[in-house]
């Protein structure tokens, strides 16, 4: 099977995509299962990136059919980055705040406020906790409170 056939098979298999993304809304699924979905999507996107433009468009449309799936995947990626190196994300966010740029913390708060899905809201809450609950000397709380 070549890359195009793999991508085509997956994007045309609505039942598979539905089951894949339902892992995120199933609170009985383990974090490992959810991480596996993120890793799968990352690999799937890597394969699709190598396709010709005409073949990539249907790929992105198949993912876009589920806006919830996109939000879930995005929060999962951010969660994974935070788990790997929270201080890196905090320092980047602090730089945004100090330069009076739109920053990650306030964007996550806005998403948390507007998100209709309880599972995604839970992920946003955990992201905020990790961002804010850093070492006391990193300055996030002081800068946010200003």
Automatic annotation (TrEMBL):
Q: Which UniProt keywords apply?
A: Nucleus
User: Is Ligase tagged as a keyword?
Assistant: no
Q: Which chain regions cross the lipid bilayer?
A: none
Q: What SUPFAM superfamilies does the database record attribute to this sequence?
A: ARM repeat
Q: Give a GO biological-process term.
A: DNA damage response
Per the record, the coiled-coil ranges are none
Compartments in which it is found: Nucleus
The GO molecular function terms of this record are: protein phosphatase activator activity
Which residue range or ranges hold the Serine/threonine-protein phosphatase 4 regulatory subunit 3-like central domain? 2-136
Q: Which GO terms describe its cellular component?
A: nucleoplasm; protein phosphatase 4 complex
Which Pfam families is this protein grouped with?
Answer: PP4R3 (PF04802)
Q: What is this protein called?
A: Platinum sensitivity protein
| Gene that encodes the chain | PSY2_1
């Amino acid at each position: 099977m070549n890359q195009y056939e793999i991508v085509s098979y997956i994007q045309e298999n609505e039942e598979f995509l539905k089951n894949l993304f339902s892992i995120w809304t199933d609170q009985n699924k383990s974090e490992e299962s959810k991480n596996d979905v993120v890793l799968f999507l990352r690999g799937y996107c890597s394969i699709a990136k190598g396709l010709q433009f005409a073949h990539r468009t249907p790929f992105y449309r198949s993912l876009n059919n589920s806006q919830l799936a996109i939000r879930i995947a995005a929060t999962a990626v951010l969660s994974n980055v935070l788990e790997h190196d929270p201080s890196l994300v905090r320092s980047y966010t602090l730089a945004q705040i100090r330069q009076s740029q739109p920053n990650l913390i306030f964007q996550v708060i806005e998403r948390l406020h507007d998100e209709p899905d309880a599972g995604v809201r839970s992920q946003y809450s955990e992201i905020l906790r990790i961002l804010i609950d850093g070492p006391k000397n990193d300055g996030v709380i002081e800068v946010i409170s200003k």
